[in-house]
């Protein structure tokens, strides 16, 4: 998964987070100060969805972190290989003589 795809998914999750935050506001209370049972169920569903979204975002962040680590390791490997090849080329250049 590339970085742009991960950022798009994270943006989508941010939209869901805002939507869920807006859904939970302004719930009417009964006259005794308690919420309706339907409101409690709705709130629990919203909280469950929010937890799932947080888990998904966490997974995206871990994936992105892993990709960055792999890219750094690959860069280091390529730099070492390039340094080794430069050293070999310098030795060959010293051995080459025009006759």
Automatic annotation (TrEMBL):
Compositional bias annotation for Basic residues: 90-99
InterPro entries referenced in this protein's UniProt entry, alphabetically: bMERB_dom (IPR022735)
Region of interest (Disordered), residue spans: 65-99
Stored PROSITE patterns: BMERB
Stretches with biased composition (Basic and acidic residues): 77-89
Every BMERB domain range: 1-80
Pfam families from the UniProt entry: bMERB_dom
Listed name of the protein: EH domain-binding protein 1
Organism: Fukomys damarensis (Damaraland mole rat)
């Amino acid at each position: 998964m590339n970085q742009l795809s991960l950022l798009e998914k994270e943006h989508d999750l941010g939209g869901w987070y805002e939507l869920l935050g807006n859904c939970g506001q302004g719930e009417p209370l009964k006259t005794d100060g308690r919420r309706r049972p339907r409101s409690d169920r709705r709130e629990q569903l919203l909280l469950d969805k929010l937890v799932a979204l947080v888990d998904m975002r966490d997974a995206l962040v871990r994936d992105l972190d892993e990709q960055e680590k792999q890219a750094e390791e690959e860069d280091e490997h390529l730099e070492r290989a390039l340094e080794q090849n430069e050293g070999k080329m310098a030795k060959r250049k010293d051995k080459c003589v025009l006759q």
